[in-house]
Amino acid sequence: MKYDVYLNRRKMKKDGQRVYSIRGCTGQFKSKVRWTNQCVLISGADFVVQAAGRQDTLKRMSAASAEGVAAKTVHAFIRGKVVYRGRNALIRAREYGFLRPSRENLEVTYNPLLNESFVDSNGSPIFSAPVVLCSPLSVIAVNGLSAIETILQ
């Protein structure tokens, strides 16, 4: 089953560590948050930015700039199969060596003010990846073939 994984800014830790919401995108759990975790390992990942939601967020942010508070909508997420979550995802990421960005494993970011899509650490748009790690510190697109083969078995 595929899930949408998105950064939940309301549940983020005070020290900046990220918390992700995992929402079903088909079946009985469609549009319902099943879990929240600090670490999620996803296979067959697509990086999705809904254009109308992005425009709505930009409008809200510009309207609220005078007040300093903007209500944001969930319009960007990573869709794929959740392979591991929580502590198990962290253990596997350490085991396979992609807990941190490297030459093969690129950090992925999204900022609606700067980009229309997710971008990698080189600034290039990224739309999919075989494996993605959402960790407390960053999101990493894993491109190392041996690790991917092991995870997808």
Account of the protein in words:
The chain has helices at about 50-65, 85-95, 145-150, and strands at about 1-5, 20-25, 35, 40-50, 75-85, 105-110, 120, 130-135, 140. The protein has about 150 residues and is an alpha+beta fold. It has one domain. A nine-stranded antiparallel beta sheet has the order 3-2-1-5-4-8-9-6-7, sandwiched between helices. A hairpin with an 8-residue loop joins strand 2 and strand 3. The longest helix has 14 residues, at about 50-65. The model has no long low-confidence stretch (mean pLDDT about 85).
Question: What labels would you give this structure?
Answer:
153 residues, alpha+beta, nine-stranded antiparallel β-sheet, 3 helices, 9 strands, globular
Count of helices?
Answer: 3
- The first-to-last residue Cα distance is 16 Å
Q: Strand fraction band? A: 25-35%
Order of helices and strands: EEEEHEHEEEEH
User: Radius of gyration in whole Å, from Cα?
Assistant: 15 Å
In short:
21% of the residues lie in helices and 35% in strands.
